[in-house]
Structure formats: structure tokens, C-alpha cells
Amino acid sequence: MAGDRQPLLGMPKLESVSDEKFAEIYTECQEYQVVKGSLLVRRGDLDAMSPIAGARPVGVSIIPTPFPDTHFSCALEMQEAFNELYIRVTEDDAWLESVINGLKKSDEFATKLWDIWERVRDEGEVQPLRCGVFRSDYMLHRPPANGPEDLVLQEDEDAYQSVHHSQLKQVEFNTYSCSGASHANVVANMHRHLARKRVYGIDEVQPSLLPLNHNIAFVAGALAAAHCAYGPPISRARQAAILMTVQPDNFNICDERPIEYELAEFDPPVVLYRVDFSDDILRKCTLGPNRELLLEPSAGQAVVEISVVYQRAGYQPHEYDPKGIEARLMLERSRAIKCPTILAHMAGFKKVQQELAKPNMLQRFLSPEKADLLQATFMPMYPLDDTPDGLRARQLALDEETAEGYVLKPSLDGGGNNVYGHDIPAFLKSAVPRNHWQKYVLMEKIRPPPVQGIVAFAYSAHRGPVISELGVLGTCLWRRDDRDGDPVILQNDTSGSTFKTKPYDVDEMNVVKGYGCFDCPLLVPRSTRSP
Ligand code: ADP
Ligand code: MG
What is the pTM of this model? Predict the structure, then answer.
């Protein structure tokens, strides 16, 4: 730190973390994670000694990473307006259809989902209630003064100014299978625990600057509220239960199971069954005469009636073979409350995000005040179609120099689908037929100011410039109006947050796939300085 400057509260000096100190904190983290189930778990063979083939702690930050407190609270305060926006988008089928139509010729996945919706719509829905567990993701944006290649980490004063003078920009809005809530909850608890014990040996890391995190209770609470709203089972003799769809080979039970276990602690307890998408759905579920969704959890066990379908699978194109389509159709046709519906699923497409980012588009759905608030978080986004905007975007995307400032995104979730900067021109020219370009959108890169951090992956650690991503969780319950009026919003809540951090030079972010780590924000107060 330069000569006579006061030390700044909030920007930890990581130079003081020696190798021995790192080893000590790392051990504390790993043991906490093992004991509290902050793990990635690989399933074993059914005939092996254990159904668990292996487990290891999920990647985490070793020291909580600074994030400006003002942006943290601002992101949380906006969540109800974002929930409202996506509720209204979901129920505006005509608008949504006009957007999805633009994808149909080029995007097989979007076409399959829309076809399922049309079959449900033509038959008529039997459940007007809908549940949402959403997550709005943000990064800080402040282009480095000397251009994008300027990776030099600023001194404390500059880093402090940089994070406070940055803007909060939305990466994407997730409506489907939002993950990370449980991991974020445990890792936030872990860092608060270690801060209270003063394990870090750094004055700036004070427990009061690490926000409380109750994600698991809030997400479970939202599902329980939907379960109650479903009402008693059609056949009173049956028990009502929640169904969680899961991917058969996923590593993420430690993110999914805590929600099941939390529901079991409610009074009265709410039972949640997991089913693999799509085999288990077809084997274990049927529709009753009133399209109630009936599940036989295992052979010979009493059949239960499903109140809520909580989707944690069914977001990847390969899941929609003929069996996947049949399974999704059954769930959507059923009387169960969907979390979310197939329309809300499609509302989370990047193509929808790009349409919403157009000037004045938000005012179709929100009051001018709310629209202005949310609009300020949008980065410029462009279609890649043959409209004038699309043709301009194609030029930007095909030019090596301009492409550097953009990310190319298909309407897919789950990480690993985007193309970044310099790679865009070659990708478009060689990997995608021209008539399929319009399934992508082009988004201007968010340029976060680098801050110092230490993160640990499975087999390595990174110390140096890092970027964090804040996810704000929103939960809601609403009723579609049969007379095509406005949806009736019954519950609309901000339900917690996730925080992930990655080395500065990594483009992607997906902790399960090893691109980043779970973290807890160290809220940097705007003007507080230590004496
Ligand atoms: P996915 O649905 O696959 O999660 P995202 O839009 O969230 O797709 O992109 C994945 C990751 O890529 C983000 O978490 C973020 O780290 C990075 N990313 C996405 N958009 C941008 C952007 N405009 N600028 C910088 N990084 C981005
Ligand atoms: Mg994402």
C-alpha cells in the first residue's frame, strides 16, 4: 500500500497468507465441507459394495472475495421486479411465441419444447397455479482503463475505487433447474464460521461483513407453499408429495438433497421423491382420470399424488429423445404444479433475454420505474438474424478485432455452450451452417475489475486476480388468469443468493464442471475505513 494512505477496510491483504497459512485454512475448509456435505458425489455400480463410488469437496474460495455492499443490496432489492417480469413474460404466450418463432427454423431444442407446449395448450391445462425458483446472475462491469488486455491488478486504493465505481450487470436470468443454492448456503456458513474463529488472520474478514445465507430453507419453503396451494389429493386416501426430476448421472446430490431433507423437517413434513429424467418418469408415473400425476415410488409401495414437479433435469437437448419428450409431456399435461412450466422454461432462453434488452421492451411488462431499474443492468445484446440489427451483429461477430468484445450464446443452460471473443469468427464460419446462426445471440462482454482472491479446485489452487458472479434467488407462486388477464401473483420473494468466483482469465463459470468455486461475498462498505 502506498506511503501515507490509511488501510482500507474490506480489501483483504492476501500477501499475509503464507503457504503454511494457506494449508491451515484449506484443511479447515475441506474438513468442514466433508462434514457438512459440500461435496461432488459420483454414483457407483448398483452391484458394487457402495452406491457411492467417490466424493470430494466442491471447489471453494479459501478467503471470501470482496464485493461492494451497495451492489449486493441493490441486486437483492431488484429481485422481486425480476420475478414479476418473468412471471408476466411466461404468461404472455403471444409475445413468447413471436420470440420462439424466430428460433424454430434453426433451433431443434426450442422447437421440441414449443411443440410440447402446443400439445398441452391445445388439450387445455388443468392447473392454473405455477411455481418459480429463479436465479438472476450478475457480474461487476468496469472496463479496464487501458483496454481489455490490461490485467495488472491495481493497488488497494484503485481496486477499492474500481469495485465501487463499477456497475452491476446481468449475465443471465435462470428460470429452470437453478442450482447452487445449497452449496452456496453451506459455503457461506463455512466462511462465517472460519471468520468467527479468526482462522484467516486477516483483519478485513469480519463475520459481520459475510451475509447470512438461508437458501435451503427459502427454496424448501417456496416448494412447501406450492405443495399447500395444490390442496388435498383428488383421491383423499392418497398422500400428496413433491417430485424432483434429476439427471441420472449428475454429481450434485449435495445441492439437491438438502432441499428434500429440509422439507421433511416441516410441520407437517412434506415428502419429496427423486426420479431420473426420463426413464423413471415413464416407469413410475401415470396420469389419473383427472390428470393427477401418480407416482409409485418403488415397486409395491403405495401410490402418491404429486403436488409439485420440481425440475432439476430436462434442460439439455440430449435429454429429449422420444422418451424424454413423452416424459416431459406427461409432466406438463398433469394437474401437478410445475416448478417451472414449460413456458417459464422457455422464458429463460437467452433469445428472450436479448429481446427483453431491446429499448422500451420492458415497459410491455412492468411499470416505467421498475423497467428503468432493471434495464440499467442489461448489457447490449443482439440477434444474429437477418434484421438490420442482426446483420450488424454478424459483422461484429465475424471480425476478429470486434468479436473480442462479445460472447456468443445459444439458448441453452448448464454451461459449456458459449463461444467467447476471438473464437467467435472461426466458430461461426466453420462449425455452424449460416442458416443456423440465428439460434445464437451476441452479448457484449462484461468487464469486471479484477480483485485479489484465493480459490481451491479439486487438484489445484489459484491465487491472484479473480472475478466473482453473484446470483440472486427468487421464488414465486402465481395463478394464470383463464380470461387472459394479468397473472395473479400470490407470492413473490427474494430468497437468498449464490456467489461464485473464478480466476480472471477463465471465460466459463460452472463449479460442478470445474470452472469456478463457491464463495461468500465479503461485503466491502463504501466509505468505512479502519482508523
Ligand atoms: P449458462 O446458461 O451456460 O450458464 P451463461 O450466460 O450464464 O450461460 O454463461 C456462462 C458463463 O459465461 C457465465 O457464468 C459467465 O461467467 C460467462 N459469461 C456469460 N456472459 C458473459 C458476458 N456477457 N461477459 C462476460 N462473461 C460472460
Ligand atoms: Mg449461467
Answer: 0.95
